[in-house]
Amino acid sequence: MKSFSNSKMLLKKSNQYLAAGVSSNLRLSVKPVPIFIEKAKGTKMVDEDGNEYIDYIMAYGPQILGHSHPAIVRAIQEQAEIGQTFGAQHQGEIDLAKRIVEFVPCVEKVSYCSTGTEAVQLALRLARAYTGRKKIIRFDGHYHGWNDTISTKSTDEKNSISYINPKVKPATNGQCEEALNDIIVLPWNNYEVIEKTLKDHKEEIAAVIMEPVMCNSGCISPKQGYLEKIREMTSELGIILIFDEVITGFRLGLGGAQEKLNIKPDLVTLGKAVAGGLPLSVVGGKENIMDLISNNEVVHMGTLNGNPLCTSAAIASINYLANDNGRIYSYMKHLVDHFVLELEKLASRFELPLLVNKQETVFHTMFTSEREVTSYYQFQQRNKSMFSRLAELLLLEGVAVRPSGLWYISTEHTKKDIESTLKIVEKCFHKLSKEYK
Ligand SMILES: Cc1ncc(COP(=O)(O)O)c(C=O)c1O
Q1: Among this protein's residues, is 417 annotated catalytic?
Q2: Is it true that the peptide bond before 105 is cis, omega within 30 degrees of 0?
Q3: How many whole angstroms from 117 Cα to the centroid of ligand 1?
Q4: Does 266 share its domain with 338?
Q5: Is 244 an active-site residue?
Q6: Looking at the structure, do residues 49 and 95 belong to the same domain, yes or no?
Q7: Is 324 a catalytic residue?
Q8: For a tag site, which of 193, 259, 349, 376 has the least CB within 10 Å?
Q9: Of all residues in the chain, what percent carry a pLDDT higher than 70?
């Protein structure tokens, strides 16, 4: 049995100086204790108690090249020698933009920020400025960062149309409720609901924003034809379609979800896997929308925007991923296919109701009696505590996975990692099946 005494001691100490003892609330959900990491390399993390983990959290998505990949380390070291941030323009911004324009179908021009939250803020501002309208449609269960203007408490309702339903609630205390006055929350993957809302309120709606694949809630794919119909209708009505690809960008392939699904939004937000672990995010899209920034109609600021340390890491990461026509994505996908198949076999052996949704290099596992989960409502009916217990058992045995059930694969994961993980999963499934008899 692993000891977590140093992590426990550090959390206590951390609580004296850091509010909550962690730097993002989500990290508090790690059991038995939010672990303190000493170092990480490739697919392995080592905590302050000397425990080693095969890592599938991958920093919640950014580490698509694993930890401390030589290509990223080299790029950062070289750049650090010649300057970390200038508050002025540099070649790296252009080189990175060219790569993004080359790979992400909807992008003609980009603008840089540091986090996904900021990128979403900018995309919404551009959409409102471009259309001269105010209202934004978002979907229950999708996550677009923690900004006051977009963050909503999940409604958990089966088929809510909350535009006419006063239950659009802030996600947290301290949030400005009025900031959500122009937000409409709809259930995703239900075309009738959005069709009616778009028809009824077409003159007020600036944008529809969504994760094109609902990665934050179950890695759920859009239903056949759903995105196509939304694309068609938003185009017809002059409404901006924003794909929030902070997770899916450079993860579902070089062109993200939009390339995989063959739907071009007007704007896209990218973050996480775009910069190999450094804080850089991107808004990209049609030139005539992005040029609102050029014309100074839309203000976009940020001291650290596009800093060379981050752009150098992003260029190194994209170059590595793009090698040999992005062949590494097929490698990762095959690994996931094999891993998921074996997980499913193990689950059925232990009679555990496991459902897996996979999307190329990321997948979600949940315990549910449903054979297919296509809506946030169904997703919410899963047995959350059972999976969270599995995540705890796995951590105790040396596998780090998010308690929510999302697994990230990197270019550095190997068949050997998967085999070792499966042995541990077998042991944990055995224990879990006894506990949940
Ligand atoms: C789809 C999506 N959009 C936006 C964000 C916010 O990004 P950040 O945490 O970098 O602010 C996230 C973060 O998980 C996300 O998954």
Answers
A1: no
A2: no
A3: 6
A4: no
A5: yes
A6: no
A7: no
A8: 349
A9: 97
